[in-house]
């Protein structure tokens, strides 16, 4: 995400504005005079800053009786908290009971008292010399003395967040909170140590002591400070105020965006930005450290970035912890607590006689660094699996190119790491084998309609048989994943599915008789629905107009779609399969389609468009290379990219190509894609590969860059009618500025605009092999890979 070049014009502009605001007469409406107080009640009054950007006061804690004494962004709907008073003794956020009072007493003492009048917190031991307090527009709350000197400021007592204008002098630390809405002390620290080193630490939770450093600036010296300057740059500087380490640079303007940097509850130090004045927007990630927290945290002792028996994946700046097949969360509301086995483990009394009752579920790229208890070299994969089967203590065998590791419970430091060219085999009890422990049974806790496929609990699952059938029959679009050399029977890893089966009546009721239509295509119609027991309640119900689909085929396809899990894919919640009624139930995306976002109303910001491009590319990369069975989307277009609350791009409609009976191996007249987005090979007698999606993505990328439709009859200038042609002409004549006319934000980022145009041009090459893979596209979009100049196009010898 690193931007390459500063924005010289913008910087001087914001400097001018800055100077202006310094000169301007300060308004006094943010002054809190002696003898003023606030009481802790829900939605009570607060002390705003002059601009109203920040406020100081009490905030009710979710699901708990009590209030935080806090500072928050007051013009943003979610009122993001940036500071809260902390109990010195435990380091936890202070929880003030209902009716507590924060007061600036007439003698200058600034304190928090409970309803009985007992002090529970104070800014400093004596209020000697305080003249007034003020909530500043920087987000800093200050106590000011008679000589206008700062006696106390919240900037000197940060909790987990720093803001532009804030400076921390060594030694100083930020402590993460426990979870998004739980402000108790969490498991991670950011420390500017007294040796000058800036270090991220895990703690030995629940104690406060530091455990393992997982990122460090590695620069030492006296008198260092961590600076978040008013332009939005974050760096470490020495006592001479020269920068010794850049943490986050070339951020968008602080005049246009709110900024905050936080040691997040997942351990990632993240620089977020939010477009000012846009209440429908959301915080987006500008920079995160470390780059991949799953790989960064390898603890001993400790369980790694996630809890025991789980594995970590990191995507789009967000960490997520998941359970392997056959395991489930100890506490679904607190996934960091790790996972437990859903089956009775192998007995050590009768290891040999039990080996045949166990089986493996395979996961690519998964391993458990610094956790194994046994290691072998120059062995085969089968040998590795067998040696684990024969060992009752072995829970997982990890194999890579002749190397074999044995892991036992609890599994630690688990992660998916695509640089690890190996796989993990999780030992699970075979379906139908007895000795299921009802206490551990997942099924018991769920309603009978809930189907869990892939857990070992379903004795006679029709689904499993179908899945086997699926794995062994040669499917047209689902090529077997990463290891075609293996027998598909042993290589198919068990699907992780948690889909609900709905009755048709339930869906009729939930959609109010299919009244509210969200969208309509030639082969399906989508309706909005409300289902009370789905998280968030809202769903999108897709009614398929299928011809001659057998139940088996339908369920097989549905289960394949259900196995996909990615931040940039719309999640399938369940399905209905009653005779002719074949419906899919998806999570509801509140912000609608990218098409309406991009081409209607006001134009989204350049930053948002860049994020959407990267998100969409990552979703496609997952479908092509990272999920169990490769999926070619075949219909990438802005109507099939949806946006959630925070404008995260999510691809929809994937996996439907097979359902809709489109044979992709040969030329067909029923082209699945949509005109304008389809690659040439659809029309020729050429095989359809994942490169068709790369082509469509290229077209989409141009639309994102220009906020224009790929084909627009209504433009006056006919050169601009076909966007990709026009964009190519602009590129050729070095007039990329024409593509982003009236788009100030993109204009100051022309370097990136140019890179993106070049990436787009590579994607729409006529020769599929000249197009990059989605993996390369993601790397180029994120700036981790150089984009070569597409010269002499469109010659097919010009390998990109
Ligand atoms: C406080 O405000 C929230 C959001 O506006 C509202 O849902 C809630 O009912 C209010 N509570 C009280 C006690 O007024
Ligand atoms: C807080 O106290 C007020 C007044 O005593 C009462 O009306 C209100 O219901 C209380 N709120 C909570 C959340 O307990
Ligand atoms: C308060 O300040 C005055 C003058 O600065 C000083 O003489 C006095 O000792 C201070 N009192 C306390 C309690 O600190
Ligand atoms: C926050 O998390 C801590 C640690 O797990 C727990 O003890 C506390 O009850 C949680 N608080 C809330 C409000 O859930
Ligand atoms: C913040 O730091 C950057 C990088 O050194 C610098 O270009 C910019 O002028 C600084 N801003 C302010 C307000 O000092
Ligand atoms: C700071 O500047 C002084 C004088 O320019 C120089 O002697 C000293 O070495 C510098 N210190 C650091 C830490 O760079
Ligand atoms: C064992 O695992 C393989 C591959 O995952 C699968 O094909 C086979 O059906 C499984 N056997 C049983 C009895 O679950
Ligand atoms: C449906 O299947 C029947 C029997 O296999 C076949 O005759 C018919 O042409 C099929 N209809 C379509 C629309 O594919």
Automatic annotation (TrEMBL):
<keyword id="KW-0808">Transferase</keyword>
<dbReference type="Pfam" id="PF01453">
    <property type="entry name" value="B_lectin"/>
</dbReference>
<keyword id="KW-0067">ATP-binding</keyword>
<keyword id="KW-0245">EGF-like domain</keyword>
<dbReference type="Pfam" id="PF00069">
    <property type="entry name" value="Pkinase"/>
</dbReference>
<keyword id="KW-0418">Kinase</keyword>
<feature type="domain" description="Protein kinase">
    <location>
        <begin position="512"/>
        <end position="785"/>
    </location>
</feature>
<dbReference type="InterPro" id="IPR024171">
    <property type="entry name" value="SRK-like_kinase"/>
</dbReference>
<dbReference type="GO" id="GO:0016020">
    <property type="term" value="C:membrane"/>
</dbReference>
<dbReference type="InterPro" id="IPR000719">
    <property type="entry name" value="Prot_kinase_dom"/>
</dbReference>
<keyword id="KW-0325">Glycoprotein</keyword>
<keyword id="KW-0732">Signal</keyword>
<keyword id="KW-0675">Receptor</keyword>
<dbReference type="InterPro" id="IPR008271">
    <property type="entry name" value="Ser/Thr_kinase_AS"/>
</dbReference>
<keyword id="KW-0472">Membrane</keyword>
<feature type="domain" description="Bulb-type lectin">
    <location>
        <begin position="29"/>
        <end position="156"/>
    </location>
</feature>
<keyword id="KW-1133">Transmembrane helix</keyword>
<protein>
    <recommendedName>
        <fullName>Receptor-like serine/threonine-protein kinase</fullName>
        <ecNumber>2.7.11.1</ecNumber>
    </recommendedName>
</protein>
<keyword id="KW-0430">Lectin</keyword>
<dbReference type="InterPro" id="IPR051343">
    <property type="entry name" value="G-type_lectin_kinases/EP1-like"/>
</dbReference>
<dbReference type="GO" id="GO:0030246">
    <property type="term" value="F:carbohydrate binding"/>
</dbReference>
<keyword id="KW-1015">Disulfide bond</keyword>
<dbReference type="InterPro" id="IPR001480">
    <property type="entry name" value="Bulb-type_lectin_dom"/>
</dbReference>
<dbReference type="InterPro" id="IPR036426">
    <property type="entry name" value="Bulb-type_lectin_dom_sf"/>
</dbReference>
<keyword id="KW-0812">Transmembrane</keyword>
<comment type="similarity">
    <text>Belongs to the protein kinase superfamily. Ser/Thr protein kinase family.</text>
</comment>
<dbReference type="GO" id="GO:0005524">
    <property type="term" value="F:ATP binding"/>
</dbReference>
<dbReference type="GO" id="GO:0004674">
    <property type="term" value="F:protein serine/threonine kinase activity"/>
</dbReference>
<dbReference type="InterPro" id="IPR011009">
    <property type="entry name" value="Kinase-like_dom_sf"/>
</dbReference>
<keyword id="KW-0723">Serine/threonine-protein kinase</keyword>
<feature type="signal peptide">
    <location>
        <begin position="1"/>
        <end position="24"/>
    </location>
</feature>
<keyword id="KW-0547">Nucleotide-binding</keyword>
